[in-house]
Amino acid sequence: MANREIIEAIASIAKEKNIDRSELSEIIEKVFLTLLEKMYGSSENFSVLVNVEKGEIEIYHQRLIVEKVTDPVSEISLADAQKTEPDLQIGDPFIEVIDPLSFGRRLISHAKQILNQQIMRVEKNQIFEEYSKKIGQIIIGDVHQIQRDAIYINIGKTELKMPREEQIQGERYRRGESIKAIIKAAVMGPNGPEIIVSRADKKFLEKLFENEVPEIYDKTIEIKQIARHAGDRSKVVVASNDRRIDAVGACVGIKGSRIQAIVRELNNEKIDIINYSSEPEILITRALAPAKPLELEIDEEKKRALAIFADEDISVAIGKLGQNIRLASEVTGYTIDALKKSDYDLSESEVVYLEDIEELSEHSWKLLYNYGIETAQEFLATPTEELLQIKGLGEKTLEKITPIIAEAQAKRRAEIQALREAAQAQKEKESELSTVEPEPAEAEEEEYEISDEDIIQDLEQ
User: Fold this and answer.
1) CATH-assigned architecture of domain 277-347
2) Confidence of residue 166 (pLDDT cuts 50, 70, 90)
3) Per CATH, which fold does 2-129 belong to?
4) pLDDT higher than 80, residue 267
5) Which member of 87, 329, 388, 427 has the lowest number of beta carbons within 10 Å of its beta carbon?
């Protein structure tokens, strides 16, 4: 009866802590093995059997019968053993049943501490296992504690952590307010499980789209890629698996109802929804919105793209701190460089074609053209070993034409640099004049400004 009372008392505590009865026998066994170790110095010769359903605890102490006892925990004398069982002999095992109530009040008090530790351990494992299975799901909890490096959210009795880097930039949280986040990770640390949640992760944005757009949830519309700068701007590439459904329109919703709900949840973060295309040029152009490139040069092999923009659009194309171009690169998988039209035209004028170099014979530049080398820059960037593999181009010819080509390239660059400096000096002069109040003049002089286009025209003359 006493055993049943012990088990029922432990079972009552376990029930409060939401611990399964299947784990209860293991907890009780560990508690009594710890008590035996404390009482005897070792629990190796003891067995604890627990039957939760019947309310039974059985503790057995097994010792070896010897002539002379050197270790009373593992050995017993023949005389002592025969007091219980007269037929036993030296070398036989002797098994003694120990009453759980014989441990005494102090040890029972110690057992309670062990029990609480074991129950806390089980609780922590349960929390870890529960949230490990929920990684990638959205939760709603209450802000419990706000610290400099993290905020802590409560869901029932479980505490979740949202580090500063997982928070949306510019958001302010109040204790007690309800908050949504995605479970990002579950880590078992020395002090128990640490459940990390996030509002800045792009997976959070993806889940919000799933919740707001039924077509995404049922896979009619697929989110191909997301790039995000939390709290500021995100780009989401979507594709429809049903030709009758417009992917972008479905994500926006009637009068923008769906996208507005997501934007509100994300503290008014700007979201660009991009219609997917398998054509890199179309996809990159769409991803660079709100700016529109005039030209695109794409290197498929290196996954790089050069986008040329009107001079007045370049700041929009690059975005604040390079954000727009960076997000467009991430969402398309291409490293995108942005260049304004005037700079592009100027850099193009630096190109020296081999056929335009007067000192270079027609035979020489045609040999190089056949090999795919058309400009001075391409020639100078090609290793000597490769150039010598061109049929008809020997070492002596190479030694003769290399300085000619190098000089032509250097001369062109010097000309361009001189024109740039002249243009910059003119702009600085005009800037200084604009700060001085002009004096009345008898005749107005025609104003002029040297633009990048003028530089190119001067060069061509």
Assistant:
1) 2-Layer Sandwich (3.30)
2) very high
3) N Utilization Substance Protein A; Chain:P; domain 4 (3.30.1480)
4) yes
5) 87
